[in-house]
Specification:
Elements lengths: L1 E4 L6 E4 L5 E4 L2 E4 L7 H27 L1 H8 L5 H14 L4 H14 L2 H19 L5 H4 L2 H17 L2 H12 L5 H5 L1 H23 L2 H6 L4 H4 L1 H13 L5 H8 L7 H8 L1 H33 L3 H29 L1 H23 L4 H19 L2 H8 L5 H17 L2 H12 L4 H18 L12
Antiparallel strand pairs: 1-2, 3-4
Organism: Arthrobacter livingstonensis
GO cellular component, one term: plasma membrane
Function: May be a proton symporter involved in the uptake of osmolytes such as proline and glycine betaine.
């Protein structure tokens, strides 16, 4: 046995020499998935999947229908300015995510992962549904974009708890040697949300006339959020919290101020986590969300062809995600994350040069390649970030680092890409931006320790 003081409390918890169980007050609590039934694991996977699915379905629809949304809320602006304003609203909603990270991290580490996730999905789905009900600019004038901004701020706040909470939930339930593949469910769920959003955008673009899309067609996808959110909340409320958190709760070992403990005692892994997320933040939005707009507005591909290429790339991305999770379990998180960064440094700009050819087959192959490269980062990052922090502050550490970085670089990626093209006059600007993000993540991950083979910190 080994003794370890809990952060922020001064209490000492007795830990086993192996990660098979937590032993507190003479009782054993399964850790790293030991003793958890397969049925429970399936329910945990489903509960973690659906919340992120709903969240990223919304982001996909907003990004893929950006041109139509710009017409509905900024009809008096020219096309490029309308896009900038629409993506600006997209970015502003991200600025509240660090605040959400603090709040949801505190709730998750103090009250429990399940409670935080059950509440966040309810707020998220309600806000997404509300977008479908906002009248356009021609009906209520300036109040239309103001209401859209307010709803997206609520979305940003609620979304701050989803990705981090689901990742922590899965990692704390997963078997010790399979944390990577289980945590890969989280980015897979985001990609599935994007995939459904892309499919619906494609269906609408080929089924409705431009007038129908501008007047009511764009609202239809947002209406789906309410039933999906209610289903997700029902699944989550029927689960127990993770064994690791229940053990801490029983011994009153939960930190009273987890965010304070995070900045005071775990600032080094926090800085590493922030740097590691940069490639994910920029890459995810540029490669999977901004790309249809880039292909149609910059390259000149038709809207239907742009959506089709992105849809195929997303389908392959989901498969690659799980392969990456398996690879990170076998070869280690650090090695896989470093490989991702190096590939983006070397291949991003050449990939954007090939996109500029306008050849559909070439574009499709390039998108599949970029998506596969991105999965090396995205499929490994959830388990890597969760393993960086001890149980007492795991939700806070993940939520703060992930949401702070996404606020600075993820939410602004669509706006920055559009602005950089306008300022530089170069269609390759998003590629250079993505390459720079890869350099930052490469440095950060190089400074990290390997986490895949070690037991979860208590």
């Amino acid at each position: 046995m080994t003794n370890r003081k809990s952060a922020g409390t001064g209490k000492t918890a007795t830990m086993p020499a192996t990660p098979a169980a937590l032993t507190l007050s003479g009782q054993q609590y399964p850790n790293d998935g030991a003793g958890v039934s397969k049925g429970t694991l399936r329910r945990v996977v489903g509960a973690s999947f659906i919340g992120n699915f709903v969240e990223w379905f919304d982001y996909a629809v907003y990004g893929y229908l950006a041109v139509t949304i710009a017409h509905a809320f900024f009809p008096e602006a020219d096309k490029q300015t309308g896009l900038l304003l629409t993506f600006g609203l997209f970015a502003v909603s991200f600025f509240v995510r660090p605040l959400g990270g603090f709040v949801w991290g505190h709730i998750g580490d103090r009250v429990g992962r399940k409670n935080a996730l059950s509440l966040s999905i309810l707020i998220m789905s309600a806000a997404t549904f509300a977008i479908a009900l906002i009248p356009g600019y021609t009906v209520i004038g300036i109040w239309a974009p103001i209401l859209l901004l307010l709803v997206r701020v609520v979305q940003g706040f609620s979304a701050a708890g989803e990705y981090a909470g689901a990742s922590a939930f899965l990692v704390e339930y997963a078997p010790a040697n399979r944390r990577g593949i289980y945590a890969a469910v989280v980015p897979a769920s985001t990609a599935t949300g994007l995939l459904l959003g892309s499919l619906i955008a494609l269906l609408l673009s080929v089924s409705l006339s431009p007038d129908q899309m501008n007047s009511w067609g764009w609202r239809l996808p947002f209406l789906l959020a309410a039933p999906m959110g209610l289903i997700g909340r029902y699944i989550r409320t029927r689960l127990e919290d993770t064994p690791a958190f229940l053990a801490l709760e029983k011994e009153d070992e939960a930190v009273k101020a987890p965010v304070t403990a995070l900045f005071r005692e775990h600032w080094r892994p926090l800085l590493i986590a922030v740097g590691a997320v940069v490639l994910n933040a920029v890459g995810f939005y540029v490669v999977l969300s901004y790309m249809p707009t880039y292909l149609s507005e910059v390259v000149g591909l038709s809207s239907s062809a742009s959506f089709l290429a992105t849809t195929v790339a997303l389908a392959t991305y989901i498969g690659f995600i799980f392969l990456t999770g398996l690879a990170s379990d076998r070869f280690g998180r650090k090695r896989v994350l470093i490989t991702a960064s190096i590939l983006f440094v070397l291949l991003t700009v050449p990939a954007f040069m090939l996109l500029a050819t306008g050849n559909f087959l070439v574009i499709l192959l390039v998108q599949i390649l970029l998506g596969a490269m991105l999965t090396l980062n995205d499929g490994t990052l959830p388990s890597f970030l969760a393993e960086l922090f001890p149980t007492k502050i795991r939700y806070s550490g993940f939520a703060v680092s992930f949401n702070l970085t996404n606020a600075l670089f993820g939410g602004t990626a669509l706006f920055a890409s559009t602005l950089l093209i306008k300022l530089s006059g170069s269609d390759l600007a998003p590629g250079w931006y993505l390459m720079g993000a890869a350099v930052v993540s490469l440095i950060a991950v190089s400074l990290a320790r390997e986490t895949s083979k070690a037991p979860l910190q208590s």
